[in-house]
Write a structure and sequence with these properties.
- By secondary structure, the protein is an alpha/beta fold.
- Strands 1-2-4-3-5-6-7-8 form an eight-stranded mixed β-sheet, sandwiched between helices.
- It is globular.
Amino acid sequence: MGNLVDSILFQPPPPSRLKENKIIWLRTALGKRIPAFHIEFPGNGHKGTLPITILYSHANAEDLGCIYPWCKYLSRQLKVNIFAYDYTGYGLATDEGKPSESHCYSDIDAAYDYLRLRLNIPADQIVLYGRSLGSGPSCYLAAETSLANDEDTVGGLILHAPFLSVFRIVLESGCTLIGDQFPNVDYIQHVLTPTLLIHGMADKVVPSHHSKSLYRNLQDQSKTPPLFIDDMGHNNVHLVVRDLFLDHLKDYLDNYVRAKVGKRSSKGKFTRRNSRTSPVRVTAR
């Protein structure tokens, strides 16, 4: 069942090109070598602003080369650093094997470890951004850091066109069934960081009720005003709604992330996290 679901769920595009000097190579706990890039905004952390780094998990039919221009644009508009990575089996990691849920979790763990251990970025200055498929590893990591005794909670979580779980895109089962993947609805109840949900009301791939249900399952302390855009679909942010989209993101970062940086209690010294070889299952709703 798992292999069949994986073959339908994961649709890597033909690998796109990215300049070699922009690539950072990461080694995951499952032994895979995946590429990443780091876009640094020159003014981030200067002139009274606190440095924020977005850890970006991309959607299904794209890879680092596809998203680089968009991430560079977001970095400039939001005045943040952006660190993005490819999933095992995508882009320049195509020859590392087939993508899977477990690999996606291990991949984001490797990216997060790089930010925390190599770059020494405090957890509360890291915001997880997951778009569509990327909402799965992002929800997982937000819940993991919220529950961990030896790691501070990340500074924020942005979910753009997320789903409740993979099976629920096709069938609302009311619970997490055996074989289901990326059970975001189960993870999100444990998230203890300001969370922004973004969804296009014209989304025909993942209907907007997924985001609305996720919002209802958030703890009250983690809720921030969601953004539901009437004329936006699943795959892009059209020019006609881009200003609205960016303004809402800026308000979220300023009022819910930057305003709280350095004010949370520390849980202790961070050490490299041990990725799990199988997905963690929290109590199903």
